[in-house]
Write a structure and sequence with these properties.
Helices cover about 30% and strands about 25% of the residues. The protein has about 950 residues and is of the alpha+beta class. The strands form 8 sheets. The protein has an 11-stranded mixed sheet, with helices on both faces. Helix 1 crosses helix 14 and helix 17 packs antiparallel against helix 18. The longest helix is centred in the middle third of the chain and has 26 residues. It is elongated. The relative contact order is 0.07. This is ABC-2 type transport system ATP-binding protein. One of its GO terms (molecular function) is ATP binding. InterPro entries: AAA+_ATPase, AB_hydrolase_fold, ABC_transporter-like_ATP-bd, ABC_transporter-like_CS, Galactose-bd-like_sf, P-loop_NTPase, Xaa-Pro-like_dom, Xaa-Pro_dipept_C.
Length: about 950
């Protein structure tokens, strides 16, 4: 089980490492130019120590590391708290980063985790929060830490998830904390683990989520994950049973040797338990590192699935919800949009509670969370935001980060695990509804559908599947699909949207529900349905509804106001919104008894979706301007050397647009591609293609065909020479590439989307008007029929190939480039593709085809370029490559004319002819085929066919063999 951390940082990709290296080089250059000293990572000193905290039976030792920055003067301090299941090692990189910026940073393992002793109290104010105050006392005694007063350090606290809640609670209980930055954390553990999103919230914020005070649907899988992580035995646990272990989970301590019982296979020294009370041993092993009251609460919840007053007391004690009015430290709230554990509503409640008394609050939503890791870039941006927050509020340095609101630019690809790279950020001046500001704007979307029966099966099995908690990557690998069980849900739909609708926050809807016995457990969710029927459940999120006291009569149902999950999603024009209300979900505890509910729309029969206006920017971090400046200065220093090399390269190229460009769509002139290891993939390649031609690019594997196409498309640069498209130099980002459509090296289709959605998404990414796509013509080329609206993951290879070719033909490009277009196609499909390419070129456009199927090239292409070992070895029309003379097969309408035909042919200079098993064969020995045919016809012989016996394959093999 991986730790349930805050901003989960994936291992850097190779591309990210290269980018980091370039930035480092540029920043180093700018630092030399400015003659400014830089704080090297090696100058940060660390001190590890075990710090006692608490008293009596609750006394513990906390495993800590203090990071001391370069410099002599006192500096503000930051305490970094880790996520549940982590330790001080989980935040080591963040600590190093802040220390290099000049902060004294204290990291530690919370009690019950890592190398710290004690039991887990779930951020109990009596234990974990008191431990934080002990650490603040330690900082106040350090000469390196700036003080606001006697015993009062200038200090900020940050952390993700478990550590984020500690930052909130710490600021509420210890007024010495000057600024906090909690991330992906909770407001109420009760609402998070026993949600019931019914009722009305008196708030104008975008993601305000109600909670039934006395009821909720138990979040069974997430709670099980939490308890499983915390119940793993550690050294402290086995010590409590009378033995010792082989060290902490982070390797912070050397193995202890008790000299006691036998060593287990994994190195633990297990104690002799025979003399202990068996009941006590069993209870300790069951509860693991948790305190007894928390363990008891979990056991009750897991057994009954109900929220009891005792469970609520335990959870409320560890919830910031009841003490937010005490927080005076400026607060940066960071919450993830891909989070089925602590949704956007938890951050919304924290923002409202803290801002109510005038404390500055900034809200940032990012693409990621407990269900899906944030990208490297997003993680780095958030780390800069946290540092900028502390720079301003602890040092009074840098730009004021303000109290605004930031969220990812909505997209239509919102399934869990489907984070689309580093999306842009939308910046609003304020979080709607805070500080007396305007309430969030909402748009009403009409829904329709009759009242429907919804069956809940006995024991809740089988149950609907929406997302696997904490395993967004797995859900994505399974196609991001959800599973609704027929008969277990009611569905209501909007009309196709006439314009895109961007939803930022939690929609609301009114339902009419009736249930026998007066109670029901339901799950509401809002699907995005594409025109072809493909569905997306944004972030895989559902809204549990624990309903009590409702009507048992379907004719007189009870009206229920439901708040759907907070999402950031764009419903594209032509799509529909589908509200699904189901009776099961595998992530939650469900009623044991079967029942049939009645569910209908109530009130105005519409869903109200929140919307937020703001400005969009790819990078909104106000504290990152100096990084960009450093990059520019560094590039300036490197520019002189680059200019020398580039000038020499450019002198070999033609700078003006070629006058015959429209007649010559493609021209290679002396193109060479060599790599650093000395390998030359393409050498001095020159050829041109004229308008209306279908050119076949032939060659064995390794001939350089694909490399040539990649250079043509601007994916890689040639080492020497020039490639021009319609007279303009081709290269990465060249505007003329918009006139080119291509299919090279794989389809690149998104498997969870339908073929139609893939085509629409591809065209939308070009930024060109939808009317210019000529979508219907391209779809006709694909020839998939109704399969076009099925997910691509269900397609055969041939079907995928056809969609990819249609994608290349979107916009009807003037130059079409296809690499092995007939792979996976059956003979009828190959024949159809041949006709499509011929007719496409007949319109005056140009087609280039690279293929190993020489017979298809011979029947499809008008011209051929043959390559071998990176060089061109032949070029011409197909007829020229095959040869004007050579051997021909002569077919006669009447076999009786065979002898007379042989006599006519042998009467021609150098020609010999004779009968074979194939029929009449004539070796023309250079004599013109046209002249030989004319001689036969002139002699009155009826010729049925007159074809070269030498095929393109024969010519190709001969040419390659000669090369």
């Amino acid at each position: 089980m991986r730790p349930l951390r805050g901003l989960v940082r994936p291992r850097p990709r190779s591309g990210a490492r290269v980018t980091s290296a370039v930035l480092a080089l540029c920043l180093a250059s700018s630092a030399l130019l400015a003659l400014a000293p830089s704080a090297a990572a090696a100058e940060v000193r660390t001190e590890a120590a075990r710090v006692p905290s608490g008293s009596g039976a609750d006394a513990v030792e906390l495993d800590t590391t203090l990071y001391l920055p370069p410099g002599d003067g006192p500096a503000p301090a930051v305490v970094l708290a880790h996520g549940f299941g982590g330790s001080k090692q989980s935040v080591a990189s963040d600590a190093q980063h802040l220390a290099e910026r000049g902060y004294v940073v204290l990291t530690y393992s919370a009690r019950g985790f890592g190398g710290s002793s004690g039991q887990i109290g779930l951020n109990d104010p009596r234990y974990e929060v008191a431990d934080l105050s002990t650490l603040l006392d330690l900082l106040a005694d350090r000469d390196e830490v700036e003080l606001d007063g006697d015993g009062d350090p200038r200090v900020g606290v940050a952390g993700g998830s478990y550590g984020g809640a500690l930052a909130l609670l710490g600021a509420a209980y210890d007024e010495r904390i000057d600024a906090i930055a909690p991330q992906i954390t909770w407001n109420s553990l009760t609402a998070a683990l026993f949600p019931s999103q019914t009722g009305t919230v008196d708030a104008g914020t975008v993601a305000a989520t109600p909670q039934d005070a006395g009821a909720g649907v138990y979040k069974r899988l997430w709670a099980g994950l939490f308890f499983g992580v915390g119940s793993v035995p550690t050294g402290g646990l086995l010590d409590a049973l009378g033995g010792a272990t082989g060290g902490s989970e982070d390797g912070d301590e050397e193995n202890a040797d008790s000299g006691g019982g036998p060593a287990s296979a994994d190195g633990l020294i297990l104690p002799d338990l025979s003399s202990l009370d068996p009941a006590a041993v069993e209870q300790t092993l069951i509860c693991g590192r948790f305190r007894a009251d928390i363990c008891a609460a979990y056991q009750t919840a897991a057994t009954t699935g109900t929220l009891t007053p005792e469970i609520a007391a335990v959870l409320d004690r560890s919830s910031p919800a009841g003490v937010l009015d005490r927080i005076e430290a400026p607060t940066l709230l960071i919450q993830g949009t891909q989070d089925s554990l602590f949704g956007l509503g938890q951050a919304d409640a924290n923002a409202r509670g803290i801002a109510a008394d005038g404390t500055p609050v900034k809200v940032v939503w990012f693409p990621g969370g407990h269900d899906s890791s944030a990208s490297d870039q997003v993680t780095a941006d958030l780390r800069e935001q946290v540092a900028g927050w502390f720079d301003f509020h602890l040092r009074q340095e840098g730009a004021d980060p303000g109290t605004g609101f930031e969220y990812p630019a909505p997209t239509g690809l919102g399934g869990v695990g489907q984070i689309q790279g580093d999306s842009q950020t939308v910046v609003a001046g304020a979080y709607p509804g805070l500080d007396g500001g305007d309430a969030a704007a909402r748009r009403n979307i009409a829904l329709s559908g009759p009242a429907q029966p919804v069956v809940t099966p006995a024991g809740g099995t089988p149950g609907a599947l929406t997302t696997v908690p904490g395993l967004g990557a797995l859900t994505s690998a399974l196609g991001g699909a959800t599973l609704e069980i027929p008969g277990q849900f009611a569905a209501f739909e909007s009309q196709p949207l006439d314009a895109a609708v961007e939803v930022v926050g939690a929609p609301t809807v009114e339902l009419a529900v009736a249930a026998p016995g007066g109670s029901a457990t339901l799950f509401a969710k809002l699907y995005d349905v594409a025109p072809g029927g493909g569905t997306t459940l944004p972030a895989g999120l559902v809204a549990p509804l624990a309903l009590t006291g409702i009507s048992a009569d379907p004719a007189r149902p009870t009206t229920v106001r439901a708040t759907l999950p907070g999402i950031v999603h764009r419903f594209e024009a032509g799509h529909t919104m589908r509200l699904v209300v189901s009776s099961t979900d595998q992530a939650f505890a469900l009623p044991a008894d079967s029942a049939v509910y009645s569910v209908a729309l109530a009130g105005p029969a519409e869903v109200a979706v929140p919307q937020v206006e703001g400005r969009t920017g790819a990078d909104t971090g106000s504290s990152r301007w100096w990084v960009l400046l450093g990059v520019l200065v560094g590039l300036g220093l490197l520019g002189w050397a680059v200019a020398l090399l580039w000038g020499r390269h450019r002198r070999r190229q033609v700078s003006a647009v070629e006058p015959d460009g429209e007649d010559v769509p493609l021209r290679f002139e002396g193109v060479t591609k060599a790599y650093k290891d000395g390998f030359v993939a393409v050498r001095d390649l020159s050829f041109e293609v004229r308008r209306g031609q279908v050119l076949g690019l032939l060659g064995p594997n390794g001939a350089g065909k694909t490399t040539s196409l990649r250079m043509l498309m601007g994916l890689i640069r040639p080492t020497e020479g020039r490639i021009s498209i319609f007279g303009h130099a081709a290269g990465p980002g060249a505007p003329v590439l918009s006139r080119l459509g291509s299919f090279v090296e794989g389809t690149g289709l998104q498997p969870h989307l339908s073929g139609r959605d893939n085509l629409q998404l591809y065209w939308a990414a070009t930024g060109r008007p939808a009317a210019d796509a000529h979508m219907e013509e391209a779809i006709e080329v694909a020839g998939l029929g109704t399969a076009l609206d099925r997910p691509v993951r269900r397609y055969s290879q041939g079907m995928r190939q056809r969609v990819a070719i249609a994608q290349a033909m979107l916009g009807l490009p003037d130059l079409l480039v296809l690499d092995e277009p007939t792979n996976g196609l059956d003979p009828p499909q190959i024949h159809a593709m041949r006709e499509v390419l011929r007719s496409y070129a007949a319109t005056g456009r140009t087609v280039i085809v690279s293929s190993h199927l020489l017979s298809e090239i011979e029947q499809t292409c008008s011209h051929v370029v043959v390559m071998a070992k990176g060089q061109k070895i032949a070029q011409g029309t197909v007829e020229e490559i095959v040869g004007t003379g050579g051997t021909v097969l002569v077919g006669l309408s009447d076999d009786a004319d065979t002898d007379r035909a042989i006599a006519v042919l042998e009467g021609l200079p150098g020609v010999s002819a004779g009968r074979t098993d194939e029929g009449l064969i004539a070796d023309l020995d250079g004599y013109s085929r046209a002249a030989a045919l004319q001689a036969l016809v002139g002699a009155g012989i009826d010729v049925d066919h007159f074809t070269p016996r030498r095929r393109l394959e024969d010519a190709f093999l001969a040419l390659v063999g000669e090369s």
